[in-house]
Every structure is written in C-alpha cells, then in structure tokens.
C-alpha cells in the first residue's frame, strides 16, 4: 500500500510539473501572438486583413510600407505583396501616430514590445517610408554558446542585418541575469533589446536596462553604467564608432564581462574596419630587420596586432542555426594578418535540437588542439577516429553526444588518435582546404562542459590568493572554455603580477596549452612565476609559498624572452641559474624528502647583467609540489626541437636556400638536432654558448634548388 501511495504521489507531482511547463509555454505563446498583433494594428485595414489571412503570419519578419508603393511582408521564405493598392500619406500617418517618438537614429517602438519601427524621411524631414520589424524573445536562441557565456569570457557577436544578433544578445542577457545570477546592465540605444517604454520587456529577465537619449551619447552611457551601477556584465548592441570601441576597452580593463554586437559578416571585416579594429586589438605596421625578415620568410614591412583584443571570444553568426566561434580572438587576428585563414569552431543546431561542433581548420586555435589531444582517460579527452573517419561532438539540449564519419576525411584522419603514453597539444596536419572549397571537418573536442563544471570553473576563477582570480580572468576563461583541468597538466603554475595576455601568447607559441595549467590559487600550484621586484617587496607571498612548499621563480621583466626562458627552466629544458630547477634522471624520480619541500627562489640572469646569478637562492633540494615527478622532460624537449629543425629544413633551408637560426637548446637536445641534419647532409654551426647555444642551419652549396633559382 505504501509503495502504491508513493508511486501515485510521484505520478501526481510529475503530472503537475508537466501541466506547469505546458502552461508556461502556452502563456509565452499567447504573449508572443498578442505582441505580434500590436504590430499588425499599425497597418491599414485592407493590408491588415490580407496579412492576418496569410498562412505564415506567425513567421513574419517585417513589413515595409513606402509612399506610393504596394506594402510588402517579408517572411523567411521570401517577400509577399500584401495589396495592389499603393501606400498613401494617410496610411503612414495612421501608423506613426500609434508608435513612440522617433529618436535621432530614426527608430521608434511600441510600448512594452520588442518591435522596431524605422522610418525614411525626405529632405524636409517628412516620413515617406516605414520598416516595421518584428521583435521576439526566443528562449534557447543562445543555447549553442551557453558554455562560453557562463564561462565569464567577453563575447563579440558579428553578423549581417537580420541574422538574429539582437535576439541572441537579448537571450544572453537573460541567461546571465537569471541562470548565472549576475548583475547585468544593458546599454539599450534604440530600446531594441529591452523594448520600448520605461518598463523593460520580460525577455531580458532580471537584467537592468539603461536607455540612451541620443545615439552619439552611447559611449558615455557605457562608462556611466560601470561607474554608477556596479555591474558584473555590460551588454551593448551595435558598437559602431571609435568612441564606443574605446569605452568598451576601458570597461574590459576594469574587470567587467562584455557582451556586444557589431555589423560585419566575419572577423576579417572587423580587422579591416578602421573604426572597429580596436575591438580586436588594433592594427599597426611594423618594419622588421633584415635577419628577422629572412628568418620569417616575409617582407620587411608587415601588419601586426597593436594590443590585446577587447573581447576574448568572437562569434560569427553565419545563419540563424549555424555560428562560427573563434575561441582566441588574439590568435585568430594574428593568423589573418599573417595571410592565413582564421578558421574557428563551427556550431550548428540540427532540426531535432542537437548541437554539432566541429573545427574545420586545425592549423590554428591552439586552445582547441590542446583540449582535443588530452591524454586518454583525462577529463575533456575525446575518443580518436580511425583511418577513413573522424570524430565529432554533438549535444542535444546540453547533454548527450553524437559521432559521425565521413569517407571524405580518408587517410587524412589516420594516425590522429591520442594515447595515454604519448600525446602532443598539436594535431597532425590534415588535408589542405582549397580556396573557395567547403571546409573540411576534423576532430575537435567537445567544449560544452556540464553546467556544474562551468559554475565550478567560474567560482574557481574568482577564488584565488592575493586577488589573482580577478587579474587572471582571461586566462582562466580560456582554460575553462577549452575544458582544460589541473589534473591533466604537467605543471600547475601560479603567475603573480604578470601580463596575462603576454603569458598566454608565450604559452601558445611554445605549444604549452594543456601541459601548463594556470591556477589562481597558490596552494594548488607546483611553482610560482613572479616579477623579481614584486617578490622582493611582498613578504606575505614569500611566507605563503614557504608554508605551502611551493618554489618561486622570479624574472626581472615580464617580456616574452624572459617568460620563454622561465618556462624552459621550469620544464627542465634548461638548467636554472641557482640550480633549483633542471634536468633529473629517471633514478631521481623518487618522492622528495621532508627537507626538500621548502620554498625556492630562482632568478633569470639577464644578458646585460653579465650572467649574474646572485638572485638565485636555493633553500631546499628538489622542486616541491610536483608529486615526486620532478622536471625530467628530455623526451618532450627533443621532440619539440626535432620538429622545429624539420620544419626549418623542409620549409626554408632546402626550398629557399636560406640559412635558419634555431632556438637555444640544451646540449643533449642539440645533439638530436645535429643527427637530423646529418641525415639531410646539411652543414651547421653552433652559435652562442651555455644556455644560449643554438644551431644555425646552412644551405647546401650548388643545390638543385639554388640552380633552379638562378635559372
């Protein structure tokens, strides 16, 4: 009896929940129809009746009424003429009197709705045309990028007019305000996000809305929102001027998450737009020296990104159900400026609601590669595809996975499987995409962590020692988006008072994404990387590191060259100045003793200091906090060095008949490179000494490539 009663009560609860859900959907449906009818009431009687009888009225996009022309209704399937009678001045006046006042941008709305009424004027200011666009609050329209929104990353949405940018950004605002419970402020220039009138539309949830008196004052309202209302997120629709771009950069530097839209079909359009280029870092012309230009194989004058981008993620809305995501805007811009394809991850929603994600250009986006090539069994790892197929990720309503195969991948997918014993953060080169061809789908990891994982990552990003969580927002967001975890990394690093954008660029260039994990908690770190001056004057940092048994590695400046040296030393590729970090043999992999768990302070000696290593202080034996594994990565260092030498030989030395100078390497790694050059029968010379020793590969004298070039 008790079991039957329990089953009956559960069934009642389930039925009640179903009724509530159905009732909620029915209420939303009725509200949408009521709002649509408010727009229909603007039309003349004959036009209104023709539209109400149209079978696709509920899919209406907009109605166009021009003086002296028949009215048109636009649907997803095409335009439909609603009447053979032309629109008169009285018809336009009838519609204008039912809407609000037109602002400086010639836009108006209907109170408590999301519709937008735009007007055309003649030279005297008289209205001679109306475009009545239907506005809808569509829940789930931003589901394809839910993981990115909740990760805390700043997001820029691009797309042509009518693709759904405003609808998506409205749903993002509701998602952040209601689901993430963040303080969201919308800067609504034309009342298109929150609707017309003083009371915002329910489609934005708990988000607050600031109206803008004049379009040219939008940048001032953006700054006012940050200074007066303490937001965690600022939402802006249609950034279009240099002043608004500067205001957006200022807001991003204050630690506020930005979500904005801009007109442009793809990222390259923004790069070429002088007013919007600052959103992605700005463009500057740089003149290279002769040696550097030869080493890169480019002309002396090149274009480079001037500053870190304002937004972490860029989304190109190709269609309403098909978006392309650039998970690292800075890296994508650099690739475009170098003449490459920005690539990105395509997210596509199928008719059944399943969300497919695939990367069509594996040559870029180290974040995706790092996640896709994680060790088998590690969090975020994906199964590898066999020859002749490829693995994809898909999720329906936030869960589930789908796999599909394609014969077109052919042998290009062969050998891409990752194993637990050997893995690299870079995918093997896939088939080349010919110009103008459709993209090639290649393996990519699913970047949709569960809701709990997203919330945990967001909480961890703000729970660091010495306020590091706030300063490392960009890096922790990128790691969260890529699904990277501390458990799968070989080194957990706590950077203190370092430029996070420079740090991430160095890690990307050295292919350390996935191998090195940036943690905002000192207690969870294997090592601390900090500026020497900051360490010297911060007794609390030194005491905390000593208490946790975490070594400190100090650099004089946060320049790229010093960070490269620091990473090479921390990973055991180069010996440290004080001997605290360096190679360890396999026999030295035993767990460290209790006496060896004290803090270590190491320092990079700069060239101008004459090799002074006085800043290195050794307080213990082996490095603490590494679980007894030490920093013996000789095999990894040799693989990376051989790959570098192989690329230099096959891409520059042999075909271009030019010398190439490689990066400094340890003596044992140089020997591996020399063995490779001997197989190619190439000559070389060793440049520098000590930790700066490196190879310069010399071209063959009288080679066939040289003879062909002379002819």
Automatic annotation (TrEMBL):
Residues 151-307 form the AAA+ ATPase domain. GO terms for molecular function: ATP binding. Gene3D superfamilies: P-loop containing nucleotide triphosphate hydrolases (3.40.50.300). Residues 581-619 are annotated as: Disordered. Residues 590-604 have a biased composition (Low complexity). The keyword Secreted does not apply. Pfam families: PTPase (PF25516), Spore_III_AA (PF19568). Keywords: ATP-binding, Nucleotide-binding. This is AAA+ ATPase domain-containing protein.
């Amino acid at each position: 009896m008790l079991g039957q009663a329990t089953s009956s009560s559960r069934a009642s609860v389930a039925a009640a929940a179903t009724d509530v859900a159905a009732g909620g959907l029915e209420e939303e449906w009725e509200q949408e129809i009521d709002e649509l009818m408010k727009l229909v009431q603007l039309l003349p009687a004959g036009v209104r009746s023709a539209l109400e009888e149209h079978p696709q009225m509920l899919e209406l996009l907009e109605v166009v009424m021009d003086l002296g022309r028949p009215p048109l209704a636009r649907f997803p399937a095409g335009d439909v003429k609603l009447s053979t009678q032309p629109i008169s001045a009285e018809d336009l006046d009838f519609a204008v009197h039912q809407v609000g006042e037109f602002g400086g941008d010639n836009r108006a709305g209907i109170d408590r709705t999301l519709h937008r009424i735009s007007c055309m004027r003649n030279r005297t200011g008289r209205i001679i045309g109306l475009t009545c666009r239907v506005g809808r609050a569509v829940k789930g329209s931003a589901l394809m990028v839910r993981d990115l929104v909740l990760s805390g990353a700043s997001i820029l949405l691009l797309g042509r007019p009518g693709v759904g940018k405003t609808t998506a950004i409205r749903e993002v605002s509701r998602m952040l305000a209601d689901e993430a419970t963040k303080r969201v402020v919308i800067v609504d220039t034309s009342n298109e996000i929150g609707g017309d009138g003083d009371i915002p539309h329910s489609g934005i949830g708990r988000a607050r809305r600031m109206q803008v008196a004049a379009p040219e004052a939008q940048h001032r309202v953006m700054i006012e929102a940050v200074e007066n209302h303490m937001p965690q997120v600022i939402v802006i629709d249609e950034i279009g001027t240099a002043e608004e771009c500067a205001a957006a950069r200022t807001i991003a530097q204050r630690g506020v998450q930005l979500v904005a839209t801009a007109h442009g079909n793809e990222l390259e359009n923004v790069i070429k737009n002088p007013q919007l280029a600052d959103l992605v870092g700005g463009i500057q012309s740089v003149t290279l020296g002769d040696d550097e230009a030869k080493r890169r194989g480019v002309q002396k004058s090149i274009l480079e990104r001037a500053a870190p981008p304002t937004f972490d993620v860029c989304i190109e809305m190709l269609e309403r159900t098909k978006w392309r995501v650039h998970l690292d805007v800075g890296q994508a811009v650099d690739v475009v400026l170098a003449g490459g394809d920005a690539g990105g991850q395509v997210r596509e929603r199928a008719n059944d609601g399943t969300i497919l994600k695939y990367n069509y250009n594996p040559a870029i986006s180290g974040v995706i590669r790092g996640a896709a090539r994680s060790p088998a069994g590690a969090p975020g790892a994906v199964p590898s595809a066999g020859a002749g197929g490829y693995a994809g990720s898909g999720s329906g309503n936030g869960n589930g996975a789908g796999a599909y195969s394609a014969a077109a991948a052919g042998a290009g997918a062969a050998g891409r499987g990752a194993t637990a014993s050997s893995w690299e953060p870079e995918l093997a080169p896939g088939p080349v995409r010919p110009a103008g061809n459709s993209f090639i789908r290649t393996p990519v990891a699913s970047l949709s962590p569960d809701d709990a994982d997203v919330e945990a990552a967001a909480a961890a990003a703000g729970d660091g020692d010495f306020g590091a969580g706030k300063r490392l927002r960009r890096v922790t967001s990128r790691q969260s988006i890529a699904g990277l975890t501390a458990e799968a990394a070989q080194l957990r690093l706590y950077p203190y008072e370092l430029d996070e954008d420079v740090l991430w660029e160095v890690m990307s260039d050295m292919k350390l994404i996935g191998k090195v994990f940036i943690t905002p908690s000192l207690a969870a770190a294997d090592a601390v990387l900090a500026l020497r001056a900051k360490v010297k004057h911060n007794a609390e940092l030194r005491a905390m590191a000593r208490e946790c048994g975490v070594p400190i590695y100090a650099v004089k400046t946060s320049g790229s060259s010093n960070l490269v040296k620091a990473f090479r030393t921390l990973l055991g590729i180069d010996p440290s100045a004080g001997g605290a970090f360096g190679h360890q043999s396999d026999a030295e992999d035993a767990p460290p003793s209790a006496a060896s768990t004290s803090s270590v302070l190491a320092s990079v000696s700069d060239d101008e200091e004459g090799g002074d290593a006085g800043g290195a202080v050794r307080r213990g034996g082996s490095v603490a906090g590494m679980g007894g594994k030490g920093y013996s990565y000789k095999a990894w260092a040799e693989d990376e060095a051989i790959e570098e030498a192989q690329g230099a030989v096959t891409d520059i030395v042999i075909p271009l008949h030019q010398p190439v100078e490689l990066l400094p390497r340890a003596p044992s790694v140089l020997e591996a490179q020399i063995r490779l050059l001997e197989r190619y029968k190439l000559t070389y010379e060793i440049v520098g000494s000590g930790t700066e020793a490196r190879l310069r590969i010399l071209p063959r004298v009288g080679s066939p490539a040289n003879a062909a070039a002379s002819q």
